[in-house]
């Protein structure tokens, strides 16, 4: 993975986009990592993996784990989860 300063990313934008097609590009500002540029293909793979994780978590849910939506929001408004 390559790392570019924010200024380099701005001045070498086209090159950065080409590089991001094959590997993530880290953007650093004032010595701190602030962003990563990845290809659309990699982004889609990450989103698909997140969706699979969400689906897996709901596959084995039981009735006892469910709660009425209005009750939950009432509890939230009352400060129960603060």
How would you explain this protein's 3D organization?
- The protein starts with a strand and ends with a helix.
- It has 2 domains: 2-38; 41-78, no CATH class.
- Strands 1-2-3 form a 3-stranded mixed beta sheet.
- 54% of the residues lie in helices and 18% in strands.
- The chain is of the alpha+beta class and 82 residues long.
- The radius of gyration is 21 Å and the shape is elongated.
- The mean pLDDT is 93.
Which terms summarize this structure?
2 domains; 54% helix; 3 strands; alpha+beta; 82 residues; 4 helices; 3-stranded mixed beta sheet; elongated; single chain
Give a quick precis of the structure.
The protein has helices at 6-11, 13-20, 40-59, 69-78, and strands at 2-5, 25-29, 32-37.
Number of strands: 3
Largest sheet: 3 strands, mixed
Rg from Cα? 21 Å
Uncertain segments: none
Number of helices: 4
What would the average pLDDT be, to the nearest integer? 93
Rounded to the nearest angstrom, the distance between the terminal CA atoms is 40 Å
What order do the helices and strands follow? EHHEEHH
Question: How much helix, percentage-wise, in residues?
Answer: 40-55%
Q: Which helices and strands occur, and which strands form pairs?
A:
Elements: E1 2-5, H1 6-11, H2 13-20, E2 25-29, E3 32-37, H3 40-59, H4 69-78
Parallel strand pairs: 1-2
Antiparallel strand pairs: 2-3
Function: Antitoxin component of a type II toxin-antitoxin (TA) system.
Organism: Rheinheimera tangshanensis
InterPro entries: Antitoxin_Phd/YefM, YefM-like_sf
């Amino acid at each position: 993975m390559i790392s570019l300063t924010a200024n380099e990313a701005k001045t070498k934008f086209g090159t950065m986009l080409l590089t991001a097609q094959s590997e993530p590009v880290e953007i650093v500002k004032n010595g701190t990592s602030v962003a990563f540029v990845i290809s659309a293909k990699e982004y889609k793979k990450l989103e698909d993996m997140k969706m699979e994780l969400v689906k897996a978590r709901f596959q084995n849910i039981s009735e006892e784990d469910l709660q009425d939506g209005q009750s939950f929001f009432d509890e939230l408004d009352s400060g129960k989860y603060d």
